[in-house]
Amino acid sequence: MAFFISLTDWDPFGHTTFVGLRHYKTLLFDVQFRQALLNTIYYTAVTVPGSIGLGLLFALVIEAPFIKLRPFFRTLFFLPVVSSMVAIATVWNWIYNPMFGLLNQITIRLGLGRYGWLADDDMVLECIMAMSIWKSVGYNMIIYMAGLKGISSSYYEAAAIDGAGL
């Protein structure tokens, strides 16, 4: 139904006129639409593999036999997932604050100067992607940890006998 409506000048209370692909042609030549589409593709291409990859890495590290504080680390990494987006946005706004933010304090101490992280058009998307990855990596980590727990120890024993490394 949505596709059909996109081919019309649809008025739910009046006359609907079929316009064909005119709306799509308008979008094709709209510079702002193309930029938004490219930003969405870039955001997705970085955040999805980033959060999945980091989730797997953290799951493997936390499930390693030498990790002693496993419940603490699970909680630490999963806490952003269950936190309110408003609270997370407030914390990250403080981290990115150009005057007294935590990230600028680090860059100043490293001699790199002060940055307007969210005010700079070239950096704002990457800053939002970093926050998004941070928020979702714990969810992916828990999913991988559940999968790792579901692997029978007999598979690990057979791999060790065959000489495979962990």
Describe the secondary-structure layout.
Elements (H helix, E strand, L loop, with lengths): L1 H5 L1 E2 L7 E2 L3 H7 L2 H32 L7 H13 L2 H11 L6 H8 L14 H26 L3 H10 L4
Antiparallel strand pairs: 1-2
Helix pairs in contact: 3-7, 4-7
Helix content: 55-70%
Based on CA atoms alone, the radius of gyration comes out at: 24 Å
Instruction: Please tally the helical runs, counting DSSP H or I stretches of 4 or more residues.
Output: 8
Give, in spatial order, the strands making up the sheet with the most strands. 1-2
Whole-number mean pLDDT: 92
Structural class: mainly alpha
Residue ranges: pLDDT <50 for 5 or more in a row?
Answer: none
Percent range for β-strand residues: under 5%
Number of strands: 2
Largest sheet composition: 2 strands, antiparallel
